[in-house]
Design brief:
The protein is an all-alpha fold and 118 residues long. Helix content is 75%, strand content 0%. Helix 2 crosses helix 4 and helix 3 packs across helix 5.
Length: 118
């Protein structure tokens, strides 16, 4: 039985060339290099979606630590005290509060300090 693939093959190649728009030189014009470039870019994007989450968490922790040290604690003590005080705020929210609303963060840090003293 004969299989004619022209339509599907063209559709597949067209999708790759669309994805390679804006690439320089042969990376946007030559089938083999387009395929390599697009597949590599997809690997990078998959990897970096995971890395972005790690990077933001590190940034939030750094910001919280800097803000908490002004109140005489370090990050680990602060997080432990929050858990004991049953204050359920994630690190993203805590970092935002620390940067944008220092008065509110001072109240949260005060409650955490009370838990450490108790």
């Amino acid at each position: 039985m004969r299989v004619k693939r022209a339509v599907h093959a063209r559709k597949r190649k067209k999708a790759y060339f669309e994805a390679a728009k804006g690439y320089r030189g042969g990376r946007s014009r030559l089938w083999r290099t387009v395929k390599d470039a697009v597949e590599r870019s997809r690997e990078y994007s998959f990897r970096d979606r995971k890395a972005r989450k790690r990077d933001f968490r590190r940034l939030w922790i750094t910001r919280i630590n800097a803000a908490v040290r002004e109140h005489g604690m370090n990050y680990s003590q602060f997080i432990h005290a929050l858990q004991r005080a049953e204050i359920d705020l994630d690190r993203k929210a805590l970092a935002h509060i620390a940067m944008e609303e220092p008065e509110m963060f001072a109240q949260i840090a005060g409650q955490a300090k009370e838990q450490l003293a108790a």
